[in-house]
């Protein structure tokens, strides 16, 4: 099969909340995102079924962008009265009609764009959407082979080369994480193998193009962005290059017309 930006979502959407519904964002994440959004809608890239979208929309309007129409459909069923605009679009091409204070891609979404060309295009489009004081926020893990990913309650392992690990174990349900790291190419390929009592096995494929934080800074520079702040978590703990397992990085435009 050929992996596309919507592949995981199209395969996983109908089961995603069942498998990972207990992975909820910390309150401090929602408070911080709402503050950064200011008086404009927040543009979320990789909204999925609404893990972050729904609680954030209790505070500010959200434009929820996802490449998977199946994920967007799942989110649309939940929006109710909330000020959410679900959009099915590729992050490399999407641009909001008006300028905004916040464009954000949480939980490794930037890596899941899966190719350098798509990541560069996303950063360029995101920069074009910003107000003079606006920021692009990116949250990703720090690639360290052999370590568990900072992946909520069900982390996989980022391998040196190949690994199979237990991602989730519940009555009647087992999720295995089979992963392969291509370090020279900076690519991380994985399958989540879902085994449930009375059902056929399901394979949910994922692919990432990963970078070290300073390499993301270089990509951002090419899109007309510069690093403003970097934290290790949503409490704004200072990022430590040698020990932090993930980073939350804010970029602002180098210049504004």
Automatic annotation (TrEMBL):
Keywords: Methyltransferase, Transferase. Residues 235-257 are annotated as: Disordered. SUPFAM superfamilies: S-adenosyl-L-methionine-dependent methyltransferases. Residues 242-257 have a biased composition (Polar residues). It comes from the Bacteria. InterPro entries: Methyltransf_25 (IPR041698), SAM-dependent_MTases_sf (IPR029063). Residues 43-134 form the Methyltransferase domain. The keyword Methyltransferase applies. The keyword Methyltransferase applies. GO terms for molecular function: methyltransferase activity. One of its GO terms (biological process) is antibiotic biosynthetic process. This is Class I SAM-dependent methyltransferase. The lineage of its organism: Bacteria, Bacillati, Actinomycetota, Actinomycetes, Kitasatosporales.
């Amino acid at each position: 099969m050929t992996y596309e930006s919507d592949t995981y979502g199209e395969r996983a959407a109908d089961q995603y909340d069942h498998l990972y519904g207990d992975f909820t964002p910390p309150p401090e994440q929602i408070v911080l995102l709402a503050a950064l959004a200011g008086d404009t809608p927040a543009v979320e890239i990789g909204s999925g079924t609404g893990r972050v979208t729904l609680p954030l929309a209790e505070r500010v309007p959200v434009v929820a962008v996802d490449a998977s129409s199946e994920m967007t459909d799942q989110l649309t069923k939940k929006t109710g009265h909330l000020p959410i605009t679900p959009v099915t679009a590729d992050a490399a091409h999407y641009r909001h009609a008006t300028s905004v204070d916040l464009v954000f891609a949480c939980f490794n979404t930037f890596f899941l764009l899966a190719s350098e060309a798509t990541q560069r295009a996303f950063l360029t489009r995101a920069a074009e959407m910003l107000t003079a004081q606006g920021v692009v926020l990116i949250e990703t893990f720090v690639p360290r082979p052999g370590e568990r990913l900072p992946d909520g309650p069900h982390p996989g392992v980022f391998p040196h080369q190949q690994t199979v690990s237990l991602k989730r174990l519940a009555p009647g349900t087992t999720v295995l994480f089979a992963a392969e790291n291509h370090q020279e190419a900076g690519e991380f390929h994985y399958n989540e193998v879902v085994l449930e009592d009375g059902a056929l096995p399901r394979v949910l494929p994922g692919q990432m193009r990963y970078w070290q934080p300073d390499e993301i800074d270089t990509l951002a520079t090419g899109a007309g962005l510069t690093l403003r702040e970097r934290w290790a978590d949503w409490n704004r703990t200072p990022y430590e290059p040698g020990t932090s397992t993930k980073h939350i990085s804010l970029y602002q435009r180098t210049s504004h017309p």
